[in-house]
Amino acid sequence: MVLPDVERAVLEDALLRFDADLRALQEWSQWETSAAQKFALVHKGLRYPPKKIISMAAGVPVGGFSGGRQSNEYLKNRGFETVAIDHATSGPLEAPRFVVGEIYDRWPDINVPYGGSRQSGISPSSQAPAIFLFTGDSGEQYGYRDAFDADGVFSYTGEGQVGDMQVTKGNLSITNHARDGRALHVFESLGKGKGQKYVGEFTYVNHSFQRGPDREGNDRQVIVFHLVPIGRETDDVPPSEDDVIDSGPPALDLAEARKRALSAFGANEGSGGKEAKKKLYVRSRLVRVYVLLRSRGECESCHEPAPFKRVDGSPYLEPHHTTRVSDGGLDHPRFVGAICPTCHREIHHGLDGKLRNAELTEYLAEIEPLT
Prior knowledge:
By secondary structure, this protein is α+β, with helices and mostly antiparallel strands. Helix content is 31%, strand content 20%. Strand 5 (122-124) and strand 6 (130-135) form a beta hairpin. The relative contact order is 0.11. Residues 238-249 have low confidence and may be disordered.
């Protein structure tokens, strides 16, 4: 939505009204602590919620326009300063960064900075958008046999040492990781006191139910998750299918495209190997098609038209994963933006990259509900 053009004086009046009428109210007294608030307007030593001030000045409902970059640019063009709110002490940390092949100590290197269980094989972080998975030979006595198959798909056994495994708790967090915006980081336990070797980041595709012994030797249902390494999603894709993945969005109805994309998320039964990789290709394509269609030909970061058209006539925009250090893998549309190449490179390599990513994250949360 194009916001009405108001003078700086009108915004200054809105700031005065916020101080006089709203700042002391319970709803606004601690507004900066809300995780939904990503930015603050700074004026004469005080901080204000940008969208609320714009809404009061322009007479437009808060839900009628975008936060993040649109609001920040609107205020900047009228001489105001906005800053990112640091939620580091009370909110999620950035996505963790690990080096494949490096060895980490679980307690000081993983649990201390990111939280999570010190013993469980599946350890969702309490402070960062991540789930840590630990694998090793010691689990074989309980029916845990994790390994890569011939197609590069990693089979990871779920949690639960006695009785049938269920898709609950840690197991459920794996199936929902993309929808929840959490990266899956796999570590290989090298043995007591030898540390955890980082295997890499993965995305869940599906899972199968197998039979195996529990801790007491009784036969039970075992859940095996099929995970694909990030960065290797398109390995061995036939050229014809690869061409389809890289093509622009077909003429689909937006609601139908969203329905198809969301069908990729949640628990899915299936096998590993080529079947799992094929499903991931298709699902990634569905997400890409929907996100590009949702953008309506405009960058979802700077909100400018796509810089050029593809050979098929569709606008050229690139999918960006807001929760990842690098792009790739299956992500919920809430965490994937269709952005122009300039914004994409600025987010990954620019001085204000973190700010731009935060603005895009806020925008996507507004336009893309979880349901």
